Amino acid sequence: MPSRAEFKTQKHKKSIVRLHAKKLSPKKDGELQKKQTEQVTQSLLGKFHKAFIENPKNILAMNAVTTTSVHNVAKNRQVVNATNHIFSHVLKAGESTSQNSSGRCWLFAGLNPLRAALMKKHKLDDKFELSQNYLMFYDKLEKSNFFLENILRTLDEPVGSRLLDWLLMSPIQDGGQWDMFLNLVRKYGVVPKAFMPETDSSSNTGLMNALVTAKLREFAHTLRRYAEKGAKMNALREEKLRMMETIYRMLAIHLGEPPQKFYWQWRDKENKFHREGWMTPLEFYEKYIASELESKICLIHCPQKSKKFNTLYTIDFLGNVVGGDIIRYLNVELPILKQAAIEQILSGEAVWFGCDVGKMLDRDLGILDMKLYDYESVYGTKPKLNKAERLDYGQSAMNHAMVFVGVDLDEKKRPRKWRVENSWGDKGGDKGFLVMSDDWFDEYVYEVAVNKKFLPKKLLPILETEPVRLPPWDPMGALAIAP
């Protein structure tokens, strides 16, 4: 037990501590307030809990969503019941196609309108398809060369730089853009699917991509190491050619070798026999396909403050064919983009387009509608960013390509909804075809490929201007790749 003197000493020390604490209280109060606003405290958790349980709607929503998908709970039955697949203007299309477990939507979207034109002109069966595997082989071969050339262009970039990291991230992913599609068909042509059908790896690209990507990153390291040791560019490119032979071999093992020629003959729907004989893929393209792609350009609607309307843009380091056309987008106001799409459909041509497919979608019903899910009734809040803000903050980007094959116009010729040919097989929607509300178009369609004759004449000279260059990580550099 402490003595009387020790007790007084302890009491005096405690008084000093309290005195100091009192003098320092403003600072401590500030630190406490900062802690309460910076950190998730027990007090704050109690507040959140109290607010949650006091609202019976929260309990009901929790009970529902913990046992089923939130989309089943939030689905607006009025929208579902009011949606149908009847349109005022519809184009003939073939049977639904399937990209399976791959990100080749942009190739399917590019080839599907071409096969529809062939079917119409030559009375081909609705099951007829052009080979997506054929174009994918050359796309991955060209992307590999494009990647290695970009590595040679950036030898001064240090390891860890944003640009080098971007180049190394996914050099031969499945995705693409409209101009990349044009580069492939103009250089390599097309073939009917029967002459280069699907393989396991064309329908399930993950493992093939991983193995080829690993080899390409290894090659990138080798080229940079040789350059550090003083190798000249000519020698580096000779080494690159040897590397490309390896990539060709790997792709051929996974996808098969593309045909150099094929024997083209067919019976039409009336059972009439036709024979063209031996053709190269490029001869087939030039005879049957090329006219369908003449004068097509890519329009985008990008309302970000960092972009200007009526301006041509391109994306640095984005592409597939070295020496091919660069990516070109003409950024226009939404009514111009939409009207061009309508006029092309009314003229009898389908429209390739790019969108953010994952938003407000019911895949089974095949519905894209801004009112499809009532999130506010479930969460007490709803998404509030507009189109430009979603692009600015990474909440949206073009990630899927499909085809407009119909539009429903009201009495004043205004669009109500759009018929969409997808490449996810025939299980959802109307045997694989989707219906898109016009307000969904406004929010999540980012680009269309249309004939430039459907543009206002005042915009045509802009197509001849030097495009403004955007960095590769710009939202408009996103690729259509959704499986």
Secondary structure topology:
Blueprint: H1 4-23, H2 25-38, H3 42-53, H4 56-65, H5 70-74, H6 77-82, E1 89-90, H7 105-122, H8 132-153, H9 162-169, H10 178-188, H11 200-203, H12 206-228, H13 233-255, E2 262-267, E3 273-279, H14 281-289, E4 296-300, E5 311-315, E6 329-331, H15 334-346, E7 351-355, E8 361-362, E9 367-368, H16 375-379, H17 387-392, E10 400-409, E11 415-421, E12 433-437, H18 438-444, E13 445-451, E14 468-470
Parallel strand pairs: 4-6, 5-14, 9-12
Antiparallel strand pairs: 1-10, 2-3, 4-13, 5-6, 7-10, 7-13, 8-9, 10-11, 11-12
Describe the structure.
α8 runs parallel beside α12 and α8 runs antiparallel to α13 (233-255). The protein has 18 helices and 14 strands. It is globular, with a radius of gyration of 29 Å. The protein has helices at 4-23, 25-38, 42-53, 56-65, 70-74, 77-82, 105-122, 132-153, 162-169, 178-188, 200-203, 206-228, 233-255, 281-289, 334-346, 375-379, 387-392, 438-444, and strands spanning 89-90, 262-267, 273-279, 296-300, 311-315, 329-331, 351-355, 361-362, 367-368, 400-409, 415-421, 433-437, 445-451, 468-470. The strands form two sheets. Strands 1, 4, 5, 6, 7, 8, 9, 10, 11, 12, 13 and 14 form a twelve-stranded mixed beta sheet that branches. The protein has a two-stranded antiparallel ribbon with strand order 2-3.
- Specify the biggest β-sheet: 12 strands, mixed
Structural class: alpha+beta
Mean pLDDT: 93
* Dominant shape: globular
Unreliable stretches: 15-22
| Tally of alpha and pi helices | 18
